[in-house]
Amino acid sequence: MPQQVRGVVSRAKDAPVELVTINIPDPGPGEAVVAIAACGVCHTDLTYREGGINDEYPFLLGHEAAGIVEAVGEGVDTVAPGDFVVLNWRAVCGKCRACKRGRPWYCFDTHNAKQKMTLEDGTELTPALGIGAFADKTLVAAGQCTKVDSSADPAVVGLLGCGVMAGMGAAMNTGNVTRGDSVAVIGCGGVGDATIVGARLAGANRIIAIDRDPKKLDWATDLGATHTVDATSADVVEAVQALTGGFGADVVIDAVGRPETWKQAFYARDLAGTVVLVGVPTPDMTLDMPLVDFFSRGGSLKSSWYGDCLPERDFPMLVDLYQQGRLPLEKFVTERIGLGDVEKAFETMHQGEVLRSVVIL
Ligand SMILES: NC(=O)c1ccc[n+]([C@@H]2O[C@H](COP(=O)([O-])OP(=O)(O)OC[C@H]3O[C@@H](n4cnc5c(N)ncnc54)[C@H](O)[C@@H]3O)[C@@H](O)[C@H]2O)c1
Ligand SMILES: [Zn+2]
Ligand SMILES: [Zn+2]
């Protein structure tokens, strides 16, 4: 039977989000209905609300979630009712050119549910990143459900569904950080701090955290940064060079995504080092730099989408490491809030007071 549940919807650009009743269809072939246990508030939810992604309002927000599979549709054999899952926005198709070339993390045809969830009057909802998990339940493609250790705290492991995975993967997968590397991270919000955790796990022996907010630098240190640079008073490039024997870092990660921070990342790395852009620039931003610098400094300039992750490979592994006490993922959960508090959480996020607010259902 189709069900009615509560969901947080954004109806129009810049209007506050609303907690309303939504309709969830029964899962069709290849689909699953998931009862949400927890969902983190990510910057991208706010970007949807502000019209920064597209204008397909109304949006059903929320996408960093964990929950229990309630029902599955025809042909689903990867998950079953009762399974504890983290939701992902990269259910790879296995058939596109990227998948066939053995690079499924670039999949061009990732799966989402085919049926639509709707408002009570039948208006179709656009779920954020194909998930829509600020709701009691949501409808997704079964491939968006990744089974993990069911004893893990959903508020913590749900964050792997987006920002924490994006950050950790930017260091481990995109940046290929390895033992003995020096790593610098510009911007220590939830994503930048996750790159620090990823760099530490990968064996980096020098991790330099750079931010304009002293509180963020304290949190970064708590999560594994070995050195900090206050970007309001120091020259970032000189400071990174001074902390790396005059060379620059092997890998510099820009977790802000602005022309000035990317330039700092470019010049703060060692010759033939790697720059990873994980912060998302806006379409109006441009870069003006001497082309010869690209040539003469060599190395690798990369962007990281969702940390080049493969949810089926990475989520269970990271949950296991967290459960063993080897990953401090619980430190990303700054506050636990209710489904009616999402608008307030956007404000708290804007003021830089949290790494993550997590809605508990
Ligand atoms: N690539 C992906 O797949 C992916 C996934 C999720 C999020 N993101 C992006 O990652 C970025 C960071 O997300 P977040 O949740 O950590 O955001 P956030 O707002 O929590 O953190 C940004 C941090 O950067 C700092 N900062 C801002 N300007 C700075 C500057 N000039 N120099 C140094 N520090 C500066 C801020 O003080 C803050 O601590 C966003 O652009 C977000 O859209 C990318
Ligand atoms: Zn594919
Ligand atoms: Zn996100």
TrEMBL record:
The keyword Oxidoreductase applies. The keyword Repeat does not apply. CDD domains: Zn_ADH_class_III. GO terms for molecular function: mycothiol-dependent formaldehyde dehydrogenase activity; zinc ion binding. PROSITE patterns: ADH_ZINC. Its EC number is 1.1.1.306. This is S-(Hydroxymethyl)mycothiol dehydrogenase.
